[in-house]
Amino acid sequence: MKIIHGGTVSKLLEGVKIPRMFRAKQTFSRERIEPKDIPAKIFSELSREPFVSKIKPGMNIAITAGSRGVANVAIITRAIADFVRSRGAIPFIVPAMGSHGGATAEGQLEVLAGYGITPDSMGCEIRSSMETVHLGLSDTGQNVFVDRNAFESDGIIVSCRLKPHNAFRGPYESGPCKMMAVGLGKQKGAEQVHGAGMGHIAENIPSIARVIIEKAPILFAVPCIENAYDETCRIIAIDAHDIMTKEPELLRFAFSQMPKILAEECDVLIVDETGKNYSGTGVDPNITGTFSTEYATGGVKVQRTCFLRLSRESHGNALGVGLASVITKKFYESINPEMMYPNCITSTVLASARIPCVVATDKEAIQMCIRTCTGIDREHVRVIRIPNSLHIGSIMMSEEYFSDVKNGKWPGLTAESEAEDLAFDDEGNLITLIV
Question: How many other CB atoms sit within 10 Å of the CB of residue 404?
Fold first, then answer.
């Protein structure tokens, strides 16, 4: 695809006015565990019964590590490994990320390294393989697979984040059950969970997880929950036999901690950066309102969305690009289909990988979104800008919102500056900082 700066598209957009914008602060509940306190918290949790007695000297213990950008993931994973060592057992880490990392053992190691999880930093082996063991059928008729390295261990600790999913709703969304069914299932397991379509994933995940709990050496889970500021706020150990009853309770708490765009509606949403380190679909639709399926709703009500760049941590996996209305040339050129398409083939959801309109610059991406909005007064366009979908404490809003924010229309939303013109460099890159 040839994208020309200064061509016909540029000429059609050059007169589109971008509104002045002001910086705003969103304030949410901030229960949290300081990173320095995480190891002690994990040791305290795992020193309780029945957890402490399950790890015996000489045991080989598999610890899961996923592909998401979990807050403090390296600290959490290292602390669990250290606890295992303190009991005289031998820890090793298993990438539990389904088809992510290009559905290769090497790619999954690369993903973990991007989060600071390496043999040196963890003080133990990382055993990465796509080989699985078939455990049988679930009660929904799905084949159940589990990572061979984990299955052949003396015990598995399911370390993961617990949060609302970005494409479906149910009592078990992103958490221990999904980590077992999809993450530990590798490519084959992920394919089974998603194969019947997103309309069935809410029933497939728990049905497969039950088989894994019964037939694989699952010891317990250590899910973490994050607050609205992408900070660890809870770490809980759950015995294997309690996962099915306790996970739905914790999911309700995780929903209560989710951030949101407090203004609730806009015409154009600008997302500076997307990527797998922010969400499985690049942006979290629970924030941006840009869902890839009909099985989940929420987030800001928006007409047009532009993505300006893809994070380096994504390694070219731009899954979620299809949720944008417009992307930039630099975003497009960052896409590696070999990293992105395995997720689509496995999940059967193609919408997330469709390429939207591509324009030459940040400025033109914003202008095209404004120009193509319908039913609005472009002199009073409502634009919101976020750095990514994980960190929305500091945002920018167009001048149209200013008086309402100043008058306290949305509790927790305050203006931090006066409105100003957004600045762009000679190449059309947005250079005004949000903070």
Answer: 14
d(CA 109, CA 112): 5
Nearest-CA neighbor of 248 among 142, 176, 140, 144? 176
Task: With H, G, I as helix, E, B as strand and everything else as coil, classify residue 15.
Answer: coil
d(CA 330, CA 427): 11
Contact partners, residue 15, CB within 8 Å, separation at least 6: none
Q: Quote the CA–CA distance of 273 and 291 in Å, as a whole number.
A: 17
The full length of the chain comes to 435
Which residue has tokens 């007695």?
Answer: 53
Tokens of 332: 């497009």
Dump pLDDT digits (tens) for 175-213.
999 999 999 999 999 988 888 787 889 999 999 999 999
Number of H helices, E strands in the chain: 16, 17
pLDDT tens digit string along 361-395? 999 999 999 999 999 998 899 999 999 998 999 99
Backbone angles phi, psi at 45, to 5 degrees: -60, -45
**Which residue, 159, 166, 170, is CA-closest to 251?**
170
DSSP E strands, 183-254: 218-226, 232-235, 238-239
